[in-house]
Amino acid sequence: MLKPISNQPVEKSGHSKKQEQWVRRIAIGVAIAYLALVLFIPALNVFYQAFRSGFGPFFTNFRDPHFLAAIQLTVIVAAIVLPINTLFGLCAAWAIARHKIPGRAFIVSIIDLPFSISPVVAGLMIVLLYGRNGWFGPLIQSANLQIIFALPGIIIASLFVTLPFVARSVIPVLEETGPEQEEAAKTLGANDWQIFWRITLPNIRWGLLYGVILTNARAMGEFGAVAVVSGNLIGKTQTLPLFVEEAYKQYQTQSAFSAAALLACLGLISLVAKEILERQQGSSRPIGIRKA
């Protein structure tokens, strides 16, 4: 006579438990060692090199006019790029999430294009369009304008590489919240601006801020596309990442690591803000959505 199969979990032997513990410890150790070699140690080395002679040499670099010009240009580019791509991202997210647009998947793929294209290739595309021998070259020259090797070229390159962040951060939030609240407000007589300001914006605020932070971090730290279109002219079209590369090539290691530490600090601030916003975004979602 066959015995019924028990539903009780099979207890593992002491040898199996020890084997699982060893596998877990090895996996954790490999992950920590990998992060240390690829991320932590290089980041710590930047700060060590920047401050190994004390704070004096670090702050002395702020008297360098080329260093200050690079900081100023980086801030100007971020200040122009951020509102433009925030406005575009909001409009694109609203159109994609709230309307049945033909070719929606294709449009989303186009918005994601900067994620998949190399920044150097993006810079080359801009040169081929707006350069002296580019498609729009004669038109730009007739208007006595300069795009490439000037501020407009850097802005166009930064706009391209930072284009998807706000849209891709807001679209999932709009899709999760749904249009019910906005439709209810419309039936009560609210106009479009009142609906956006009092209902839509509060619902998407954390997702929007998340995208804005990522856009700002990428605009300040972009190297490849900006290097192609700017010409890296010292004191004129040299952003902070380009200053780091140029100073290091010229054996000005103190200046290079000081600028790198400044960029790393901006990145850390963005990382902390991103973590806070992720927690806020998670806690502000309805319980049903969080469980889903």
What are the SSEs and their pairings?
Layout: H1 14-51, H2 55-60, H3 65-98, H4 104-111, H5 113-116, H6 119-130, H7 137-142, H8 151-162, H9 164-177, H10 180-187, H11 192-221, H12 224-230, H13 240-249, H14 253-284, H15 287-291
Q: Could you please describe the fold and organization of this structure?
A:
There is one protein chain. The protein is mainly alpha-helical. The protein has 15 helices and no strands. It is globular and about 65 Å long.
Major sheet summary line: none
Determine the mean pLDDT: 84
What percentage of the residues does DSSP assign to strands (E)? Answer: under 5%
What shape does the CA trace take? globular
The rounded distance between the terminal residues' Cα atoms is: 47 Å
* Total number of helices: 15
Structural class, by secondary structure, is mainly alpha
Query: H/E element string?
Result: HHHHHHHHHHHHHHH
Let me know the number of strands: 0
Uncertain runs are 286-292
What key phrases describe this protein's structure?
single chain; 292 residues; disordered C terminus; mainly alpha
Could you give a short description of this structure?
The chain is built from 15 helices and no strands. The protein is mostly helical.
